[in-house]
Write a structure and sequence with these properties.
With 537 residues, the protein is α+β, with helices and mostly antiparallel strands. The protein has 9 helices and 31 strands. Strands 1, 2, 3, 5, 7, 9, 10 and 12 form an 8-stranded mixed sheet that branches. Strands 13-29-26-31-24-23 form a 6-stranded antiparallel sheet, with no helix packed on it. It has a 6-stranded antiparallel sheet with strand order 14-15-21-16-19-22, with no helix packed on it. Strand 23 and strand 24 (426-434) form a beta hairpin. The longest helix has 16 residues, at 521-536. The radius of gyration is 27 Å and the shape is elongated.
């Protein structure tokens, strides 16, 4: 019986592995296998980067049932550096080895071996517990004994390990489909498929972001290990943040149906508030960006100017979620779902205040000040999140209005809200005060970040941004910030955490697949070419 909770870490540190633990349902295994037949692309730069180019692989690597265990072992900041699908035909073996990438790093890497299809005791991973504490790899042990890679039998490997530590022994965990072994990459391990079916498994490899991972020279798999200077393996932040200094970080694969949307990269916009209105136009939107990221099938941001007494549209409902921040003037929010006979569902909004609208929440607004009002809108959508309870409508104040609190190290944050939504695993917002000269060093986040400067100025990417500037950093892009002005800077931070649920983006209904085939222009072109070719012959 495997340990749970804190015992997982003790067992992992002591024996070098923990499991098998259930992490995927049989349906999730089936969905993943089906997705590989449809969408599996080429990895980037080396054979262990499938999660960089495959959304299904990425969602599997970000699955909470897997990542939560990795976080227990490594801590809150976790990056993914390896992802592949080792399949073994009957009687095919993977010789005993230690992972060359993990060999230089003690207690900072975790490999996860997951049964996906036709994995049984006869085709499971084999391990030597305690071998990660021996101080040398299997490859080095073989080199000392003059034994080549193919000649190292399971029996001899077990004897070598027991000679160094009597606690070492052969263990073959009874792993089934959907179950995982979490192990230290320095552990001696191998596999041999003794069944009569091809075995499919997934290997996911994680580390702390301060652990420098290098690609081994595949022409030199024996001791001593050799590593490539370039390329560095593409890594993805899966949980938390890292400084991004030692590894090459990339943005995760895009969410949802992204073909019609451009991929967003880091961007910044300065707004001249109040925004101008045309003489004959009571409402004028100013588009800032629209596209897709790893956490959004689509996200858009625009600012708008609205003349007093005008409404851009009647209260409406939509599938997207929204955040509306008032930058200048005053508006009444028109919220029939919160209506009362005396107010008619009106809520007054002042500069620095903002609201969150969940999907299908009826809303509009009307400018009530002299001249016009200027507001900023974020709108996003991603399908498939089934978490909860979801955040409700809420009104918040992003400005610090005279609250006297101690500011330490030149920095102060005040959390405004946090929780899952219909489209996100977590939506978080906080306000920040940054003293002159204060800031934070460049780092990489596992989530998208939007920043709206309300007072003062900040510097990022070598440029300065003052009040009413909008800055957006997609997940995986390195960024930092500093107050280069002479006054306090105040700004709103919104974090968009992805919906890492049960592989939502690879779900397809039979009718969806059928319709895609029927209306696929490429498919019909291939058929026409085949018909023409047959006539010509």
């Amino acid at each position: 019986m495997m340990p749970a909770g804190a015992d997982i870490v003790r067992h992992f540190r002591e024996e070098g592995y923990v499991g098998p633990l259930p992490v995927l349902t049989s349906e999730e295994c089936r969905q993943f296998m089906a997705s590989q037949g449809r969408t599996r692309g080429r990895p980037l730069d080396w054979n262990k980067s499938h999660a960089v180019t495959s959304r299904a692989f990425y969602e599997l690597a970000a699955h909470p049932a897997i990542v939560d265990v990795v976080v227990e072992i490594l801590g809150n900041d976790v990056m993914l550096w390896g992802s592949t699908m080792p399949q073994r035909a009957p009687n095919a073996a993977h010789p005993w080895h230690c992972d060359a990438e993990s060999a230089p790093h003690a207690a900072s890497t975790v490999s996860v071996w997951i049964g996906i299809k036709d994995v049984t005791l006869e085709s499971s991973l084999a391990l030597i517990p305690y071998s990660h504490r021996l101080g040398l790899t299997v490859q080095e042990e073989r080199s000392l004994r003059g034994v080549d890679r193919a000649s190292a039998t399971t029996e001899s490997v077990e004897v070598w390990a027991r000679e160094r530590d009597a606690r070492c022994r052969l263990v073959i965990p009874e792993v089934g489909d959907g179950q995982a072994i979490f192990f230290d990459g320095q552990l001696w391990h191998g596999s041999n498929n003794l069944s009569d079916k091809t075995r499919y498994a997934i290997l996911l490899q994680y580390a702390t972001p301060s652990t420098e991972i290098r690609i081994p020279d595949m022409n030199s798999l024996d001791w001593p290990f050799k590593y490539l200077d370039l390329p560095r393996p593409p890594c993805i932040m899966i949980r938390g943040s890292g400084d991004g200094a030692k590894n090459r970080f990339v943005t995760p694969p895009l969410a949802g149906e992204s073909a019609s949307q451009p991929q967003l990269t880091s961007r910044a916009h300065r707004l001249d508030v109040p925004l101008a209105l045309d003489a004959d136009t009571p409402w004028k939107p100013y588009p800032l960006f629209r596209g897709t990221t790893a956490n959004h099938a689509t996200i858009a941001c625009h600012a708008s100017a609205l003349r007093r007494g005008h409404v851009p549209h009647e209260p409406h409902r939509q599938r997207e979620e929204e955040i509306l921040l008032l930058l200048d003037g005053e508006v009444d929010l028109l919220l029939p779902d919160l209506g009362s006979p005396e107010r008619g569902g009106r809520v007054r909004l002042k500069p620095g205040q903002f609201v969150y609208y969940p999907p299908e929440f009826a809303h509009s607004l009307e400018a009530v000040n002299e001249g016009s009002a200027t507001y900023l809108m974020f709108k996003w959508y991603s399908p498939g999140w089934q978490g909860g309870p979801a955040l409700p409508y809420g009104l918040f104040d992003a400005l610090d209005r005279g609250e006297h609190r101690e500011i330490r190290d030149g920095f102060l944050t005040r959390r405004l809200f946090e929780g899952p939504t219909a489209c996100l695993g977590k939506l978080h917002a906080h306000s920040s005060i940054l003293k002159p000269g204060g800031g934070y060093d460049p780092h990489v986040d596992a989530h998208d970040v939007a920043i709206v400067v309300l007072k003062g100025q900040v510097e990022t990417y070598g440029s300065t941004y003052g009040p009413n500037s909008v800055i957006y950093f997609p997940a995986g892009e390195r960024h930092g910030m500093r107050n280069t002005g002479e006054a306090d800077a105040q700004y709103l931070v919104i974090e968009f955490h992805g919906a890492s649920g049960a592989l939502p983006s690879i779900r397809t209904r039979p009718e969806d697949s059928f319709l895609k085939k029927v209306f696929s222009l490429r498919r019909w072109k291939r058929r026409v070419r085949r018909v023409i070719g047959s006539l010509g012959s």
